[in-house]
Amino acid sequence: MTLGASQRLHEGVAAVETMTRFALAVLALASGVYTYLGVRSLLDGSPTAVFFAAIIYSASVSVGIYAFWSYMARFYPHVTTHAGRVAMLGVMALGAAMIIAMSSWLNAAALAGSAALEQHLAETVEDYSGDLDQAHQNALAAQSLLPDIQRASERFAQLAVSERQSGALTGTQGSGSVVQLLSQMSAQMRELENGVHASREQVTKLFNDGQKRLETMRRLVSAPGAVSPRADQFSSEVVALTGVIASLGQTSIAPSIRRAADDLSLGFIAPVADGGNADLVNRQDTVMETVRSSVAAQSRVLSEAADEILARAPVAERRFVPLSSAEAVLRYAADFIPAWAGAISIDLLPGVLVFILATVHGVIRKQEEKMPFAERITAAELLKALEVQQAVTARGVSPSEIDAPPEGEELNNITSLEARARAKDRSHEDR
Prior knowledge:
Residues 396-431 are annotated as: Disordered. By secondary structure, the chain is mainly α.
């Protein structure tokens, strides 16, 4: 039964030999085709030069893969020593790494390059969207100071009206130096308020422009068709959006508010009291000093609020880096594991066939080692042995005179027996 199983394995190995060669050729050709598609996206130059360069490279890859796995399938199953097996496995690992380096990543680029490039564009859109929002928030932060500025302006204006109509501050109605000072402070606050309003309109305009750029970029990412032309147009939109973000960073009115707040206290110039008597002059001086203190307090509040806004982290400068499909596949490899698995499997699947052949040949050797020598020889080998015996007898050499093999060791083939007979025959001739 062991002989029958061993024979069937021998027949199976012989039967799949042609199929193994065909499978190696098909896999090598498929790898070459996808390598061609991948390498073509990396080359620059005239279409003819790119075509022939890609063809030559892909053909070299196909031949190299077919030759490598053919050698491994031919020799690895028949290496029986431990050191030899380790050496062959080391060679196989080195060859597999070289195949992945020269072919598999290009295969992955052909399988998922467009999708990886679209993902790169999509992530770029999200990054720039975050930058636009941050720049918009920084530019609008100064708008939070508008209510304080309006209240201060209204307070000074109301005090001026009260002083003019009823003399609420000095006790003497009329448009004197106090009214003049209060009106001056109110005018300065209104001017600052108008600057904040103008800044809001400019910020809104820039933000709307940036939103339109982002919408165009998102449309380019999801549009059908080849990705390369879309990527070129995408780059143009990125340049325009970068300018919008930079403009938003320079539009903030917080620095202006900070300078205006300092001017309120440092540049405070009170008019000369113009009262008709000393008592009124003293009262006007007292009120104007109170106004000075109020302006200083208001200036300090605005300065602190403006400093908080200016302390915000500015939008970091971002640079868009266009990628080829092969580079995109490498950068986003973790997101395209199925494509990488398919690309590597095309190149390394013959290794499975090599291990199958090695396992089958190992089983055959173990089965034949357990059989007696008489059961291991075929009818043809038996006939050959009889011919050798007849030749030995015809030359006058007794079979018993031929050296027997050492104890515990059997002859593995008929060639050894014939060699021993010829050696004995030459020994008799010498005598």
